[in-house]
Automatic annotation (TrEMBL):
It comes from the Bacteria. It comes from Aquipuribacter hungaricus. Keywords: Signal. This is ABC transporter substrate-binding protein. Pfam families: SBP_bac_8 (PF13416). Residues 1-20 form the signal peptide. The keyword Signal applies.
């Protein structure tokens, strides 16, 4: 599927702008990417990090950064005599994306299969960098994942990646704080605010945090409230709907702005030593996050020592209690690049990699991933698992599996990184008391609409 108009735009302007928006050192990333394109990675099978177990058969090159990827690749290669995976860790997140972007621009150096976060997929689709794999065995594995999981890796009717893991959202909370101040897990955001006020009035800690560096969380909560930030269909590749100042979006921004203004939640950037120190020290009663959060927190040292056994998880509070909506933060998948030597073979690898029972079990038991594969989500071992971080709570059964099952999927923008950067700036302005939620939403609508039009899109209502 060719989108000549937007592909030219992406190559000349959109990609460069998005890379700048990432906040990374684009120069060093591009240099690394150029090295990969010259033979340090990409389709060069000599660059394998792993051991090839069967010689003389086709090899499919893969870029991926899952922590247990070496185990996953070894599991795949040991069980396949007709194809072998040549794996390279080209960097995590933006580091890999910089290299992939350079390979796209150069027309060479990309792997056959690349690990992508779901919200990045549309950006590469408009550059003709990914293959629609719906005709390469999709129907054979379609039942392995929910409709929501497939929607996250699709653009229009085309499927651009094989799902692996996701991030159904929930509310982690400190049982010691809740018990001390006599509050129970809120089921609605109205109850969340009431509990926050009760804890503050009693001299307790902040109830949560509204970090500017987690815009994906804010977008998820807006969608939970009924917003539809973007609508995009490659069947009409020059058109996009942008709705960032609709009532639902304004409602969410005004809500959190009010919590900040009243001193009920903090404004610390998350994923920082300062934030983790606050979590360990009991500065926050709750953490609104995703199913992968227990692994992240454990790896950062949370839940050890004095705060061991103090964490539990509850379903994400709802804007309308009678009509619960499940939302997602994060999740990655394997996509086939248009530089793949054999797209059909590469698609087979994308569908089969990290899909075997041994790899999936290793991933979820070690809290590396929250698997989306239905064989895992319906297994008694996974559902009934007593999570150590939550002091033995059956968190999957009570919270995360129901959230994953109810998730219906997002429609991501083909310029999502610019939107996230713009939203981050507006959250920071809210936290600084410079704008209201409604003012931030209006500025977002104007800024993102102008950007979309600059990139050649016609913005529709």
């Amino acid at each position: 599927m060719k989108h000549t108009h937007l592909s030219a735009i992406a190559a000349a302007g959109l990609a460069a702008t998005l890379l700048a928006a990432c906040g990374d050192d684009v120069g060093s990333g591009s240099a690394a990417g150029a090295s990969a394109a010259a033979g340090g990675g990409g389709n060069d099978s000599l660059s394998c990090t792993n051991e090839i177990q069967v010689e003389g058969v086709p090899q499919v090159t893969v870029w991926a950064w899952y922590p247990n990827m070496e185990t996953v690749v070894d599991n795949f290669n040991s069980s396949h005599e007709d194809v072998q995976v040549c794996w390279t860790n080209a960097g995590q997140g933006n580091d890999q994306y910089d290299k992939f972007q350079t390979a796209i621009a150069a027309g060479t150096g990309a792997p056959d299969v690349v690990m992508l976060e779901s919200d990045r997929i549309p950006n590469y689709v408009i550059q003709d960098a990914l293959v629609d794999i719906s005709g390469y065995g999709y129907e054979d594995v379609q039942a392995n994942f929910s409709e929501g999981a497939w929607k996250d890796v699709s653009v229009g009717d085309a499927v651009y990646a094989a799902p692996v893991d996701g991030g159904p959202m929930a509310m982690i909370y400190r049982t010691d704080v809740f018990e001390q101040y006599g509050v129970t897990p809120p089921t609605t955001w109205e109850e969340y605010e009431a509990a926050a006020r009760a804890v503050k009035d009693a001299g307790g800690p902040l109830f949560g945090d509204f970090g500017a560096n987690v815009p994906a969380v804010v977008m998820a909560l807006q969608i939970q409230a009924g917003a539809q930030p973007f609508e995009y269909d490659p069947a009409n590749p020059t058109e996009i709907s942008v709705a960032l100042d609709d009532p639902a979006s304004v409602k969410v921004l005004d809500y959190w702005a009010g919590l900040v203004q009243d001193g009920l939640v903090g404004t610390q950037d998350q994923f920082t030593p300062e934030y983790i120190s606050g979590v360990v020290g009991g500065d926050y009663a709750t953490y609104v996050s995703a199913a992968w959060a227990p692994g992240y927190l454990s790896g950062a040292g949370v839940g050890e020592g004095a705060d061991a056994g103090t964490f539990a998880v509850a379903p994400l509070p709802q804007w309308e209690g009678a009509d619960p909506v499940s939302v997602n933060w994060g999740g990655s998948a394997f996509a086939v690049t248009t530089q793949a030597a054999d797209p059909e073979l590469a698609a087979g690898v994308a569908f089969d990699l990290y899909a075997d029972e041994e790899s999936l079990t290793d991933g979820w038991q070690n809290q590396v991933i929250f698997p989306l594969n239905q064989d895992v989500l319906t297994s008694a071992e996974f559902v009934d698992y007593e999570v150590g971080f939550f002091d033995g709570q059956q968190a999957n059964k009570e919270v995360y599996v129901p959230a994953a099952d109810a998730y219906e999927g997002f429609t991501y923008a083909p310029f999502g990184q610019f939107y996230y950067q713009s939203l981050t700036e507006q959250i920071a302005a809210i936290n600084a008391g410079e704008v209201t939620g409604a003012e931030a939403a209006a500025e977002l609508q104007e800024t993102v609409t102008a950007y979309a039009e600059e990139q050649g899109f016609t913005v529709t209502d």
